[in-house]
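hiii, so i know i said id send this last week but things got crazy w the move. better late than never?? heres the sequnce for the chain we talked about at the cafe, plus the structure i predicted for it. fair warning i was half asleep when i ran it
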Amino acid sequence: MTVQADELTASYYRCRRDESFLDTFYNRFLSTSPAVAQMFADTDFTIQKLMLRQSLLDMLGFYREMPGTHEEIERLGLRHQKLGVTPEMYTMWLDSLCEAIKKHDPSYTPALEQLWREAMLKSIQEMVAVGASHGADRE
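okay and structure toks below
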């Protein structure tokens, strides 16, 4: 897994070299659904992009099973649950991310996209589970 995780990290930094990477992502993501667009209606995107950069690093760290990242993914899952993020929105998020990676990583391949999907799904599944268990606790 180390080789794959290194490939993902290198891909992340190649994408980050292009300042429009996160803009591409958010333009695509916000166009996926009126509900998604509404969630971000009053968002300060300067702050939001910083949060996304950190979240992507946390998700890559969780894929690597780095210490402390499980707690960060749980925290993110709880925050998303409180915001009303649905499992379908995570799918739209991941598709939008992969489209942005395809556009901004000059070393993009379908195999690399599959690695991104695998890594991000590990975190997404954890966030959905945390959100679902927290929601069940409140009922």
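btw The chain has seven helices and no strands. thought thatd interest u
miss u guys!!
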